[in-house]
Automatic annotation (TrEMBL):
It comes from the Eukaryota. GO terms for molecular function: ATP binding; poly(A) RNA polymerase activity; RNA binding. Belongs to the poly(A) polymerase family. Its main location: nucleus. It comes from Iris pallida (Sweet iris). SUPFAM superfamilies: PAP/Archaeal CCA-adding enzyme, C-terminal domain, PAP/OAS1 substrate-binding domain. Keywords: ATP-binding, Membrane, mRNA processing, Nucleotide-binding, Nucleus, Transferase, Transmembrane, Transmembrane helix. This is polynucleotide adenylyltransferase.
Length: 184
């Protein structure tokens, strides 16, 4: 699923999509639901389940435990910030946290569209009308979007470039949220 997400342009935690741990947790939950399914059927079930999923209902591999260390855990009943999460995917180890807090309304919409596309392609594959290549076809980013923002970073050495890249990536989500507010 990580390869599929990368091909379809929905693999990037810093951009408001899902990162590796998020995809692993979603797949693990499907494996829990269908423990005896073949891998190809798990892919089909993955798309079917997440096409039907009612976000912001959370995906959890196990029940949330309080723990004895007093660390904060994900709990939208008690924590106001947790109520605003669009696509909660909860880590299974204490302290349980939402691993997908970067997801925004727009990135959730894009992922839902991609889940639907994946589901439709899996149905075609089951009817022998498509093959795996279609599922992993790269997303036509420049054809799909009329406007986009490109950020270029220039530094004198690789160490400075890594630091600036990390800093900028950590703030991209805030930039897109501020751009959304300005467009209202």
């Amino acid at each position: 699923m990580r390869l599929w997400a990368k091909c379809r342009g929905v693999y990037s935690n810093v951009s408001g999509f899902l990162g590796g741990i998020n995809w692993a947790l979603l797949v693990a939950w499907i494996c829990q639901l269908y423990p005896n399914a073949l891998p190809s059927m798990l892919v089909s079930h993955f798309f079917w389940v997440y096409t039907q999923w009612h976000w912001p209902n959370s995906v959890m591999l196990c029940e949330i435990e309080e723990g004895t260390l007093g660390l904060p855990i994900w709990d939208p009943r008690r924590n106001f910030k947790d109520r605003g999460h669009m696509m909660p995917i909860i880590t299974p180890a204490y302290p349980c946290m939402n691993s997908s807090y970067n997801v925004s309304a727009s990135t959730l919409r894009v992922m839902k569209e991609e889940f639907q596309r994946g589901h439709e392609i899996c149905e075609l594959m089951e009817a022998n009308k498509a093959d795996w290549k279609l599922l992993f076809e790269p997303h036509p980013f420049f054809e799909a979007y009329k406007h986009y923002l490109q950020i270029d970073i220039a530094t004198e050495d690789d160490d400075a470039l890594r630091k600036w890249k990390g800093w900028i990536e950590s703030r991209l989500r805030y930039l897109t949220l501020k751009m959304k507010i300005m467009n209202r």
